[in-house]
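Researcher: I'd like a candidate sequence for this fold, 516 residues long. If you have to choose between options at a position, lean toward the conservative one.
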């Protein structure tokens, strides 16, 4: 039977993938065609979504972007055999945008039926756990350490070191917590994995449990991701039914189970201690560190808190070995990074490549420049608290240290593009406003500082006493950087100061122009 693939990923759904699937199902039934529709995740070529694919002897042939109205024409053109049509993209694997990538963590995303364990295993799934079950916990931790994997949630902390702390802690109960709050602007990697390869996360968390001696895991999914939540809950139920979660996993003596929780809808709940508070049923407010969550985390027990991409990368490392992962990348940034291209970009989507690729390659070769066709003026990397870089810095490599050296950060790998219509003074105001809205309120520099920051920015934008206000803004940024308890208040100055440094002209406009 011919297999057709229509994505069930949120981005594709927002572009009518459901209607396309329905139209296709109806037309196939009418024709009495021997064809099955598989609902896959997305490969991350968002400008081509809904991207439908058909399995042919030569490989999977793609068509996109498809509307429901295109369906009769596609079938008449011989869709089931990969026939010619104006939407035909050829073999999907050969599309240069995809072919040039180095997909390790996203190897299965968009290819498999996300809820089919059979498909998952046919594409290398559960090889990592099988290997981990032959190792001592310390050897699993050593493998992750040797791979050089650093947390993809933002801070880039070495995963192996975090796991070692939890492994060494003595307790009757330990936990694995997956941070799937994904609050950064322009990011969607966590969501794509939840919707496109959920067993990869389940396997990664199980390996983490085995490595540190934890028997229970929690996945905290942001409330804005209803499709991801639904898919992942189904995957957990299937895995439990098939003996992949629960007691005696894969016939071993190891027990591990996962609970899925919906987030509280606040950016600060992505911060690990706040997330733990929220998981415990309390308001998401930062906990003072120390103690580290690795020693006293969820319900006071030793807890691994890792980002979803981090955990989903672990099965590859165990299956292929630490070296296979470490061989990718540059300097201390090892392996691959799933970059998310968003904002004013022509070809938005997900690009997984070894660290070291330049911003220029990502933005211009992959992204195709701005969607508006106007010159690129700024790119913000690392979410709402990341720096704004000007087009003159596009030769920077994607690397934790290289971006930090230019007073920026990599964050979760999100890149938001802006054309020359952007006003960086207003973006600086937005950073302060974002902090004021999302602050947990625990410390003064962040809670009060961000509100004063918005007022200062308003005066600068209105052209009032600009020089003195700019000096005050710098002073305030210093206080927020040095005095904030967590990185929300501590990093808010980053976008503000980068805007001042790289785009000073936007802060010095004449009153008339500023007031319009
Ligand atoms: C304000 C704030 C928001 C954060 N939001 C997220 C988030 O949405 N997802 C995430 O994985 N980490 C987020 N983090 C980082 C987490 O606190 C934590 O470092 C991370 O989950 C650890 O996992 P990793 O080592 O795998 O990166 C945030 C941190 C701060 C300060
Ligand atoms: S910096 Fe802001 S978010 Fe962080 S603890 Fe202080 S008030 Fe809360």
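Model: Candidate sequence:
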């Amino acid at each position: 039977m011919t297999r057709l693939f229509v994505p069930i990923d949120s981005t594709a759904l927002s572009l009518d993938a459901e209607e396309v699937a329905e139209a296709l199902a109806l037309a196939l039934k009418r024709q009495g065609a021997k064809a099955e529709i598989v609902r896959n995740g997305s490969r991350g070529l968002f400008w081509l979504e809904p991207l439908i694919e058909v399995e042919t002897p030569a490989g999977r042939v793609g068509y996109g972007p498809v509307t429901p109205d295109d369906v009769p024409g596609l079938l008449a053109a011989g869709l089931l055999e990969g026939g010619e049509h104006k939407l035909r993209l050829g073999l999907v694997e050969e599309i240069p945008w995809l072919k040039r990538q180095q997909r390790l963590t996203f190897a299965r995303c968009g290819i498999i039926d996300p809820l089919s364990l059979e498909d998952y295993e046919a594409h290398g799934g559960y090889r990592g756990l099988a290997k981990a079950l032959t190792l001592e916990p310390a050897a699993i931790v050593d493998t992750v350490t040797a791979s050089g994997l650093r947390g993809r949630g933002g801070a880039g902390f070495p995963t192996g070191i975090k796991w070692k702390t939890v492994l060494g802690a003595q307790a009757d109960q330990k936990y694995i917590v997956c941070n799937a709050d994904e609050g950064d602007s322009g990011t969607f990697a966590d969501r794509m994995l939840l919707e496109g390869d959920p067993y990869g996360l389940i396997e990664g968390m199980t390996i983490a449990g085995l490595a540190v001696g934890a028997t229970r895991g929690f996945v905290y999914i942001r409330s804005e991701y209803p499709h991801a939540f639904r898919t992942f809950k189904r995957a957990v139920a299937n895995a439990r039914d098939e003996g992949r979660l629960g007691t005696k996993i894969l016939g071993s003596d190891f027990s591990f189970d996962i609970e899925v929780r919906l987030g509280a809808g606040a950016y600060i709940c992505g911060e690990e201690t706040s997330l733990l508070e929220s998981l415990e049923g309390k308001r998401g407010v930062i906990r003072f560190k120390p103690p580290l969550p690795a020693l006293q985390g969820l319900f006071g027990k030793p807890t691994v808190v890792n980002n979803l991409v981090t955990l989903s990368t672990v099965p590859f490392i165990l299956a292929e070995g630490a070296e296979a992962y470490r061989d990718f990348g540059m300097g201390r940034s090892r392996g691959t990074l799933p970059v998310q291209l968003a904002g004013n970009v022509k070809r938005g989507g997900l690009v997984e490549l070894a660290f070291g690729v330049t911003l220029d390659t990502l933005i211009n070769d992959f992204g195709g420049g701005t969607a508006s066709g106007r010159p690129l003026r700024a790119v913000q990397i690392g979410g709402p608290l990341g720096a704004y870089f000007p087009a003159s810095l596009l030769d920077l490599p994607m690397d934790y240290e290289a971006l930090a050296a230019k007073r920026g950060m990599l964050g979760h790998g999100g890149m938001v593009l802006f054309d020359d219509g952007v006003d960086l003074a207003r973006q600086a105001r937005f950073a302060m406003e974002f902090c004021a809205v999302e602050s947990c309120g625990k410390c003064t520099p962040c809670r009060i500082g961000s509100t004063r920051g918005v007022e200062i920015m308003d005066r600068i934008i209105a052209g009032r006493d600009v020089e003195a206000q700019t000096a005050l803004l710098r002073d305030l940024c210093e206080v927020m950087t040095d005095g904030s308890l967590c990185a929300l208040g501590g990093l808010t100055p980053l976008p503000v100061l980068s805007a001042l440094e790289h785009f000073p002209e936007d802060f010095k406009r004449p009153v008339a122009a500023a007031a319009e």
